[in-house]
Design goal:
Structural class: mainly alpha
Number of helices: 3
Number of domains: 2
Order of helices and strands: HHH
Distance between the termini: 76 Å
Helix content: over 70%
Oligomer: single chain
Number of strands: 0
Radius of gyration: 18 Å
Strand content: under 5%
């Protein structure tokens, strides 16, 4: 039985995936402030947490994604409490 050397590309690929998750978390959190905050908020929180767990190089974006995801969920709760609706309403 021959032993093989561990692959050097595996950690780099995992880190690249984590960087992509951090950026996706930020983008989903940002979009979630305006559209579909019930869906995009929790997704941003999960992706940001996974990116941090996989040691992303874009730690700031992952943290911003988590913060924006939390803001999305808080906004959803406020809209449900005040308007009994999940939609923004501009004007009278």
């Amino acid at each position: 039985m021959a032993l093989t050397a561990p692959s050097r590309t595996a950690p780099l690929r995992a880190r690249g995936d984590a960087d992509g998750m951090a950026v996706a978390s930020f983008v989903l959190g940002l979009i979630g402030l305006l559209l579909f905050n019930a869906v995009f908020g929790p997704c941003a929180i999960v992706l940001g947490t996974l990116a941090l767990a996989r040691e992303t190089r874009r730690r700031g974006r992952a943290l911003l994604g988590i913060a924006l995801g939390i803001a999305d969920v808080v906004l959803l709760i406020v809209l449900l409490t005040l308007n009994h609706s999940v939609f923004w309403q501009f004007g009278g």
